[in-house]
């Protein structure tokens, strides 16, 4: 007996189960390699951008640079671009409401954060599905194969020996082995990628809060400056004198 002969001699339903598990395993490994590369790029790009952000560079200049050549793998950069774009739009208005402006900025950054989180979680649901149902699919093929083997033994004349029972049971157990082969890497990869995605999302949220604090101070400073510049200037008079301050009294 060989593994290939056991697979080819199995029933059609068991072969279909094996083919399904092989395809699930192939797609799982493809998504595993794709997620490894994407999460590595996302972590590196995020660290590079935050290093530039906290280097003391002028935020307007940084916005122009990242807006000219955006990095699709950096979540913090996407959050920065969305928040600073709303800040620039509010700064160009004649009258700026600080609270309404901050609400708009936080909403824009929250939308981008959710999109970046979806990008990090991409394909993880497939890995979770393969990891959870592949053993059951393999077990179904095994049960079906063993059932057919015993039915065939019941229809044969004479005494059943181990040589006649072993091939049918062996070809049925291959389905379970293939189910475990597809499920174990998918479960390990899902747990690993979920942890890395949660770590990156936490860094995105931390950056969003810190950037919100910076913009909050800038907006209130601009609001106070615009209020002072718009206030009408009144001449102050000295007590007991009708002349304004600064008048020399010369004819």
Automatic annotation (TrEMBL):
<comment type="similarity">
    <text>Belongs to the ExbB/TolQ family.</text>
</comment>
<keyword id="KW-0472">Membrane</keyword>
<feature type="transmembrane region" description="Helical">
    <location>
        <begin position="167"/>
        <end position="190"/>
    </location>
</feature>
<feature type="transmembrane region" description="Helical">
    <location>
        <begin position="12"/>
        <end position="33"/>
    </location>
</feature>
<protein>
    <recommendedName>
        <fullName>Tol-Pal system protein TolQ</fullName>
    </recommendedName>
</protein>
<feature type="domain" description="MotA/TolQ/ExbB proton channel">
    <location>
        <begin position="77"/>
        <end position="205"/>
    </location>
</feature>
<comment type="function">
    <text>Part of the Tol-Pal system, which plays a role in outer membrane invagination during cell division and is important for maintaining outer membrane integrity.</text>
</comment>
<keyword id="KW-0132">Cell division</keyword>
<keyword id="KW-0131">Cell cycle</keyword>
<keyword id="KW-0997">Cell inner membrane</keyword>
<keyword id="KW-1133">Transmembrane helix</keyword>
<dbReference type="Pfam" id="PF01618">
    <property type="entry name" value="MotA_ExbB"/>
</dbReference>
<keyword id="KW-1003">Cell membrane</keyword>
<feature type="transmembrane region" description="Helical">
    <location>
        <begin position="124"/>
        <end position="147"/>
    </location>
</feature>
<comment type="subunit">
    <text>The Tol-Pal system is composed of five core proteins: the inner membrane proteins TolA, TolQ and TolR, the periplasmic protein TolB and the outer membrane protein Pal. They form a network linking the inner and outer membranes and the peptidoglycan layer.</text>
</comment>
<dbReference type="InterPro" id="IPR014163">
    <property type="entry name" value="Tol-Pal_TolQ"/>
</dbReference>
<dbReference type="InterPro" id="IPR002898">
    <property type="entry name" value="MotA_ExbB_proton_chnl"/>
</dbReference>
<feature type="region of interest" description="Disordered">
    <location>
        <begin position="225"/>
        <end position="251"/>
    </location>
</feature>
<dbReference type="InterPro" id="IPR050790">
    <property type="entry name" value="ExbB/TolQ_transport"/>
</dbReference>
<keyword id="KW-0812">Transmembrane</keyword>
């Amino acid at each position: 007996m060989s593994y290939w002969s056991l697979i080819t001699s199995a029933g059609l339903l068991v072969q279909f189960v094996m083919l399904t598990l092989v395809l699930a395993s192939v797609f799982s490994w493809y998504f595993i390699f794709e997620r490894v590369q994407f999460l590595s790029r996302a972590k590196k790009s995020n660290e590079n951008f935050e290093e530039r952000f906290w280097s003391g560079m002028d935020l307007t200049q940084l916005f122009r640079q990242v807006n000219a050549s955006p990095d699709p793998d950096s979540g913090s950069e996407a959050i920065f671009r969305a928040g600073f774009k709303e800040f620039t739009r509010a700064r160009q208005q004649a009258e700026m409401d600080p609270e309404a402006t901050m609400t708009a900025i936080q909403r824009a950054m929250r939308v981008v954060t959710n999109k970046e989180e979806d990008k990090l979680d991409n394909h993880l649901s497939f890995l979770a599905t393969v990891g959870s149902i592949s053993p059951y699919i393999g077990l179904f093929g095994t049960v079906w194969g063993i059932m057919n083997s015993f039915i065939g033994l019941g229809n044969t004349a004479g005494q059943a020996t181990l040589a006649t029972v072993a091939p049918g049971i062996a070809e049925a157990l291959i389905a379970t082995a293939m189910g475990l082969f597809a499920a174990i890497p998918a479960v390990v990869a899902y747990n690993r990628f979920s942890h890395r995605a949660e770590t990156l999302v936490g860094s995105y949220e931390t950056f969003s809060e810190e950037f919100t604090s910076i913009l909050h101070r800038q907006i209130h400073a601009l609001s106070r400056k615009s209020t002072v510049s718009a206030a009408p200037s009144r001449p102050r008079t000295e007590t007991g004198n009708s002349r304004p301050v600064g008048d020399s009294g010369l004819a």
